[in-house]
């Protein structure tokens, strides 16, 4: 799930989350990637593929049964004794399991289930690597990696891969696989900088593997490096079209990933035909009430919204929400995304009273399913704050703005475009209250980040410039 900020047009109007494009089922997320078989898009903001759309094979996953049972029973004592849960907490919360706060414990089971879904998605990619033709030593290493992965022992996985890397610098193809798996291992720990480094090394050794290209591009997109991501997405699309055919689901995933990136850069005209083609593939490959179709509907509606075509966008958003509530359940993160998308559309039209309950429900779902420190939760907070600000409820909006900024700086880094949006939001809140001295440095820092990360001609840069001009 990825929520996109509703863009601030003038000071006092926040950047708020809108739709984000997602690529196919599996795992839809804002940072999204298509893992080689899938893609995910979220509305308002087109998002690169989120999980893996399982296309050519269905993998039977094992090794998670014990953890699934503990989650189902919500047995805290068993969780504290289970090494897998202990390592999960250390990787995700950066503390021991018995050091979790009451707030973290309140969302722990949902967070753990979400993490297991991520692990399964990663394992699908891992299974693809294992099924390839690999050297004998790497084959032998897989059994040890399997054991470590079953207990979520990230450090052991990395030690095993690092040992192979240091010993076999001459085995180019196998070394590329090891680099890719190290990148995946770091990404599961939300260590994006390390993940980027190893995905890059994998691509440097094998630049014809669409799985490596896509996941490298997606991590670059998460980090806001759009210029470097675009040629990687285009190459992955070209390779998939050549080897899989023009109407393969993986091709749709690549189309969505590239469209998401173009959308992020304000290149709506270039993104729209890609989205329409991906939606056409989804409707042809799947039933019309399947979540792949909902993803395509969200993506297309998001682009229409960005161009001010609200009447055309609204029925698409509502249909996507209806599909996902039916297919995934009322508390699924993708439903939260859909609620945000529809709320953003209403916000753009000044229908704040109708949008607010949708935003509150989306935030509630995100906190429950993803945990209180997740970037998607920060985006939902920013959306709600934008609505409150528009209604003059400044005292209620400010702590939400500050909390969103804090989460994004911690999780994404101080120079991420989403941090710039949070800064712009907080500055807009001060502006509307006449606190100009407090607003100016925030607007300036937001402008600096956007120029650095998005380029001088991006619409968000224009927005920052206008905000400063209006302030002066």
Write the topology of this structure.
Layout lengths: L19 E3 L18 E2 L22 H9 L2 H6 L1 H10 L9 H5 L1 H24 L4 H15 L3 H14 L4 H17 L3 H14 L4 H13 L3 H19 L4 H16 L3 H18 L5 H16 L3 H19 L4 H16 L3 H19 L4 H16 L3 H19 L4 H16 L3 H19 L4 H13 L1
Antiparallel strand pairs: 1-2
Query: Low-confidence runs (pLDDT<50, min 5 residues)?
Result: 1-62
Percentage of helical residues? over 70%
Main beta sheet strand tally, sense and closure: 2 strands, antiparallel
- Determine the mean pLDDT: 80
Give the SSE string: EEHHHHHHHHHHHHHHHHHHHHHH
Strands of the widest sheet, in order across it, are 1-2
The Rg value, from CA coordinates, equals 21 Å
Provide a count of the helices.
22
Strand content: under 5%
* Shape, principal axes of CA atoms: globular
- The secondary-structure class comes to mainly alpha
DSSP strand count: 2
N- and C-termini, Cα separation = 37 Å
Description:
The protein is an all-alpha fold and 472 residues long. The chain contains 22 helices and 2 strands. It has helices spanning 65-73, 76-81, 83-92, 102-106, 108-131, 136-150, 154-167, 172-188, 192-205, 210-222, 226-244, 249-264, 268-285, 291-306, 310-328, 333-348, 352-370, 375-390, 394-412, 417-432, 436-454, 459-471; strands at residues 20-22, 41-42. Strands 1-2 form a two-stranded antiparallel ribbon. Helix 16 (333-348) runs antiparallel to helix 17. The longest helix is centred in the N-terminal third of the chain and has 24 residues, at 108-131. It is globular, with a radius of gyration of 21 Å. It starts with 19 loop residues before the first strand and ends with a helix.
């Amino acid at each position: 799930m990825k929520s996109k900020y509703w863009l601030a047009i003038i000071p006092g109007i926040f950047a708020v989350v809108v739709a984000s494009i997602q690529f196919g089922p599996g795992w839809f997320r804002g940072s999204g990637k298509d893992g080689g078989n899938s893609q995910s898009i979220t509305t308002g903001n087109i998002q690169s593929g989120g999980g893996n759309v399982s296309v050519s094979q269905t993998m039977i996953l094992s090794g998670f049964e014990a953890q699934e049972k503990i989650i189902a029973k919500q047995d805290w004592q068993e969780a504290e004794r289970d090494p897998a849960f202990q390592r999960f907490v250390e990787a995700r919360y950066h503390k021991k399991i018995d050091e979790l706060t009451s707030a973290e414990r309140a969302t722990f089971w949902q967070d753990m289930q979400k993490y297991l879904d991520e692990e399964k998605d990663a394992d699908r990619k891992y299974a693809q690597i294992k099924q390839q033709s690999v050297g004998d030593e790497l084959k032998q290493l897989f059994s040890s990696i399997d054991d470590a992965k079953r207990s979520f022992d990230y450090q052991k996985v990395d030690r095993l891969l690092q040992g192979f890397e240091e010993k076999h610098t001459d085995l180019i193809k196998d070394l590329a696989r090891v680099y890719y798996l190290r990148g995946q291992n770091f990404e599961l720990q939300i260590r994006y900088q390390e993940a980027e480094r190893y995905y890059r090394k994998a691509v440097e050794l094998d630049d014809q593997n669409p799985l490596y290209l896509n996941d490298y591009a997606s991590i670059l997109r998460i980090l806001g490096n759009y210029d470097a991501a675009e040629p990687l997405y285009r190459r992955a699309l070209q390779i998939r079209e050549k080897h899989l055919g023009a109407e393969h689901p993986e091709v749709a995933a690549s189309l969505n990933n590239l469209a998401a990136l173009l959308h992020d850069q304000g290149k709506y005209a270039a993104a729209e035909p890609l989205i329409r083609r991906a939606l056409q593939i989804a409707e042809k490959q799947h039933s019309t009430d399947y979540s792949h179709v909902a993803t395509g509907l969200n993506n297309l509606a998001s682009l229409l919204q960005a161009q001010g075509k609200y009447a055309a966008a609204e029925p698409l958003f509502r249909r996507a929400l209806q599909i996902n509530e039916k297919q995934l359940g009322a508390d699924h993160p993708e439903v939260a995304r859909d609620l945000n998308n529809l709320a953003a559309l209403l916000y753009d039209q000044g229908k704040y009273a109708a949008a607010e309950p949708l935003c509150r429900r989306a935030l509630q779902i995100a906190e429950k399913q993803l945990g209180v420190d997740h970037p998607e939760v920060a985006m939902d907070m920013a959306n709600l704050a934008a609505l409150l600000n528009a209604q003059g409820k400044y005292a209620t909006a400010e702590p939400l703005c500050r909390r969103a900024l804090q989460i994004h700086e911690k999780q994404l880094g101080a120079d991420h475009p989403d941090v710039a949006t949070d800064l712009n939001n907080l500055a807009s809140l001060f502006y509307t209250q006449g606190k100009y001295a407090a607003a100016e440095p925030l607007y300036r820092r937001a402008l600096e980040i956007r120029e650095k990360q998005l380029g001088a001609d991006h619409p968000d840069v224009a927005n920052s410039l206008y905000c400063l001009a209006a302030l002066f």
